Amino acid sequence: MNIAVKPDMKSARDAAYALPLAELNPAQGILFQTDTMWPYFERLRKEDPVHYTADSEFGPYWSITKYNDIMAVDTNHQVFSSDFTYGGITIGGGQANFEPLPMFIAMDPPRHDIQRKVVTPVVSPANLQVLGPIIRERAGKILDDLPIGEPFDWVDKVSIELTTMTLATLFDFPFADRRKLTYWSDVVTAVPGHGLIDTFEQKMAVFQEYHAYFTNLWNERVNATETKGDLISMLAHNPATRDMSPREYFGNVVLLTVGGNDTTRNTITGSVLALNQNPDQYQKLRENPSLIPSMVSETIRWQTPLAHMRRTATQDFEFQGKQIKKGDKVVMWYVSGNRDDEVIERPNDYIVDRENPRRHISFGFGIHRCVGNRLAELQLQIIWEEIFKRFPVIEQVAEPKRTYSTFVKGYEHLHVVIPKRV
Length: 422
Known about the structure:
Structural class: alpha+beta
């Protein structure tokens, strides 16, 4: 089915407002794939911002839809746990055939803090200074190789290529095999039957290949006489992680792969789409490229590349007048909080010179705030600085094909044309 069509927002809004409130269920992949989830969240923020859905494909769950409520949940890990033994960080975690892997984002303190600290140096300010020139050189080469006057897929040629190169460097992963990282990451978040894979068994077979490849890399690094600064070596040689189980090592590899792949790549694509949908902002940016850092933050808010994070209540708890029970699934919809007009002025507008553009919740809050957020911003800033050296315009020539997922808010394809060079 070709769903790369312009969303019918009026019909979506009518449908969202026609439903009895109790039946509102925003956790539907088709809504995100067709970009028609917005009126569901708009209605929930207005009428029932802490909302209980009793029946969904993921079972019953709470939706937290307003900015400040999301902050309150995200910073209260004592009551709202991300631990994998309760179901982890996605709404699907804990369902049949989907036992979450142990990984530090799906742990509570102190275990979370110890493991996170092991890998944090890879995105330290000092290491970002080392990575910056490498990313810039690669971005320039990628852009120089793009066709002029011919349609091509921006997702494949630019967004995936740049972010996968960076991820390969962070892992010190064999460079020729780097697209395996993209494929594995996509399989991790793919819903069987919606494009990339057909069955759960197929997904597990890919996981085995993925696990085996990284097990070999672990064995190479753990036995190396010289310790390097890549993520695998950090995990293999740090006293806090060197004795972790193979399943826990793989869980952290999955976290770092998906975290380094999906979010940045989908925001790079989202920046091209947002500027094409808002030509006045594109012109403003062309006239004043010093707005690129502000545009990057605005795009991260506008795109919200991860739509939600999930927590599990560790105790009965009253929140905003609602009685959340121990064991309940609580979903923080970042995608909704970033459109909360009580906190963000004109939240549905894309404004490249927005005041206080970093006031968004795309990276989360508290102890689980995205560890690689500065690296993501760096890649976005560099690619746009290099774009403006080469291309006055990148024209979107077809509707994007969006990802079928309630977790990754991204794109499979975005076809564009570059009419000419500078």
